[in-house]
Amino acid sequence: MIVVSDTSPLNYLILIGQESLLPKLFGNVVIPQVVFDELRGKGAPSLIIEWSRNLPAWIQIKQTHLVPIPSLDILDRGEREAILLVQELSADLLVVDDKQARMAAADLGIEITGTVGIIDKAARMGLIDLRTVIDKLQTTNFFISADLIKKLME
Q: Among 19, 68, 118, 122, which residue is least crowded by beta carbons within 10 Å?
C-alpha cells in the first residue's frame, strides 16, 4: 500500500506520541519534499523539528514531477504537492486534515483519511486506547468537535 501524508497529520501524531501508528497501519509513508521542509520550518514546534532531524526508516521523501493542477492553487504548497504525489505514485491513500484539501482530493477520486481517521482505525484494531489518545490530541491546537468525539466513543 502506498500512502502519502501532508504535514498536519504527521505534526499532530508526533505531538501526541502516536506517529508509530502510521507504519503499524500502512507500512511506509511517503511525504513530498515541501512537507519535510514544513516539518523543519520556522515556527514548527521543537519536538517536530527534532523528530525531522532523525527521520524513521518508514518515511520516504519524494519530489513530484507532475504539472501543477490549477484547481489546487487554493491549497497550501504542502497539500498541493501531497495530492500531486498521490497521483504520480498512484498511491492508495492521502493522509490530510485540511477540509479544502480533503474536498479537492476527493474531487480527484483520491481516497483520504486524516488524524482522527488514523486514531479511529488504530483504536478499532486495539492498538491504542481511544479515550487516552483523544485526550492527548485535545491538549494540542487540533480542533475536534464534541459531536465527533461522542461518535468515535460510541
A: 68
> What secondary structure does DSSP assign to 66-100, as a single string?
SPPPGGGTTS-HHHHHHHHHHHHHT-SEEE---HH
d(CA 150, CA 154): 6
Give CA torsion, residues 112, 117, 123, 127, to 10 deg.
50
Question: Is the distance from CB of 152 to CB of 116 less than 8 angstroms?
Answer: yes
| 96-125: b (≥16 Cβ within 10 Å) or e | bbbeebbebbeeeebebbbbbebbbbbbee
Question: Cα(133)–Cα(91) distance, rounded to whole angstroms?
Answer: 27
- For 141, the domain range is 3-153
pLDDT means per 10 residues in the chain (154 residues)? 96 97 97 95 92 95 85 89 95 96 95 97 96 96 93 89
> Domain total for the chain?
1
